[in-house]
Amino acid sequence: MRLYEHEGKDLFSKYKIPVPQGRLAKSAEEVFELAGEFNKPIVLKSQILTGGRGKAGGVKFGSDPQEAKSEAEKLFDLQVGGFPVEKILIEEKLKIEKELYLGITLDRANYKIVILVCAEGGVEIEEVARRDPQKILKLSFDIDEKFHQFQGLVIAKWLEVDSPQLREVGAIAGNLFRLFKDYDAKLMEINPLVLTSDGKYVAADSRISLDDDALFRHPDLKEMGIEKRHEEGELTPREIQARERDIPYLDLEGDIGMFPGGAGFGIMGNDFVSYFGGEPANFMDSGGGPTPERLANMLVLLDENPKVKAIFAARFGGISRCDDFAKGVIKFLKEHGLSKPMVMRMTGNMWQEGVRMFEEARKQNPKLFEKLEFHGIEVPIEEIAKKAVELAKEAG
């Protein structure tokens, strides 16, 4: 779960990591007022959770309140990665002498915490790693290992920090390490860590991703307004709708709506669709023993998604029953109607009964089933996935 820059810097301040003077604004008028309080050149940084902010024009500068307001209006009209800018972090404009990189992440293969250090900051560390890997210092720690002062000095010397400030930069590294462990983080970056013209080291940016499964251990985050969210970007309208109905749902980039059984079956279905050249529009999980109402609501999310061109449905009856699955689909057809072509398959617990219910419902009202093709165990799931891909391509 990614934090906004201003949230990350609040945590930095809590752990005595220096950050620029900054204020948060939610309107151009508020930017104007705050810029007057700063009474100095400022930088306006759009607060979004996706990357590419700088390249998308999401950072502006203002030398006076009127210019700051004008630039803020441009930012509030901007979308970065499809997400609108709804708040701006206003900070004093730093006079920068040098930019460095300091980050911490998890080495999942070796079960270690890894500190990454580079004398090139303000650029993507992945690019430096590909281009010039010897420029990156890596220090590995066991999960229960402490950070010692001498390791901070090693980091500072690698960054070629002048002697009077070795301990200062070493302390920043140590404090970032403590913050990483204390808040169950997956990634923390200061990029760049800058040396200003007046000789101070300051975290000019923050990138923090926390383990959302560990949020219950940090009630103070909720007090700060930090609650569960995506790694990148805000929830989409459909994701908000799904959350309100307690449906695990994630929008993806494709055009094939995925209507599966459990999460494992859903992952398998997404893989099948991708294998046959399609692209899933979502990930979804019905959970064990879903009610017909829940299943009908799941289909509404797919049918009303303008990106969806066809729907792939597959149900393996285990804990849940295929006849309940059929009831949910029939309920959806009667109350909402199907506007996209849909192909589905049922197997497992009560699959014959589910197919029988579909056949009877179709006899009673054939029009409801004009866009729905259903099958039982006699048709392999691979064929269903292939047909869904074909339907999406035919829909253009």
Quick summary of this structure?
With 396 residues, the protein is of the alpha+beta class.
Low-confidence stretches: none
The CATH homologous superfamily of the largest domain is named Succinyl-CoA synthetase domains
Radius of gyration: 26 Å
N- to C-terminal separation? 35 Å
Percent in helix: 25-40%
Structural class: alpha+beta
Residue-averaged pLDDT, rounded?
92
Largest sheet: 6 strands, antiparallel
CATH architect. name of the largest domain:
3-Layer(aba) Sandwich
* Total DSSP E strands: 18
CATH class term of the largest domain:
Alpha Beta
Estimate the global geometry from the Cα principal axes.
Answer: elongated
- Proportion of beta-strand residues: 15-25%
When the domains are counted, the total is 3
CATH topology descriptor of the largest domain: Rossmann fold
Output the number of helix runs: 13
Describe it.
- The structure is a single chain.
- It is built from 13 helices and 18 strands.
- It is an alpha+beta fold and 396 residues long.
- It folds into three domains: 72 residues, 2-Layer Sandwich (Dna Ligase, domain 1); 128 residues, 2-Layer Sandwich (D-amino Acid Aminotransferase, Chain A, domain 1); 159 residues, Succinyl-CoA synthetase domains (Rossmann fold).
- The strands form five sheets. Strands 7, 8, 9, 10, 11 and 12 form a six-stranded antiparallel sheet that branches.
